[in-house]
Amino acid sequence: MGLNCHYMTKPHQKRLEMEILLGDIHQLEKNGKITTSTALQPTLLAEAAKTRGVHHSKLLNKNHFLASKQLRKNPDIIIRRADKASSLVVHGREEYLQKMDNTLSDTSKFKRISRNPTNDIKRRANTTISAINA
Questions:
Q1: The whole model's pTM is what?
Q2: Which of 10, 44, 64, 91 fits 60 for a cystine, CB–CB 3.0-4.6 Å?
């Protein structure tokens, strides 16, 4: 099916840890064990968003980056992000294009349209937003 490489980078790990911390604080506050100021959450999120220099993964070395570069240059493969994870999938070009053709030609999921409906959708959305704000 493809090569599935999954690892969590430091910024993602940091965000996840912050979400867990905020959840724990919220639960303690809900149980009446602590009280916090309203500025706590924005302050913590701002602090977590700060970057502290360039992060180099300890999982990847120079050879990994060179291999990645060679894979991206190979015209016979396609590298895509996986749908439900922060991982990459490597497909053979022909296999990938065939799967895409099969998926898009499935009339139970997709239908061919004669024109692009984007402008109509934008117009209706803007009309609705204007009506709400009026």
A1: 0.41
A2: 64
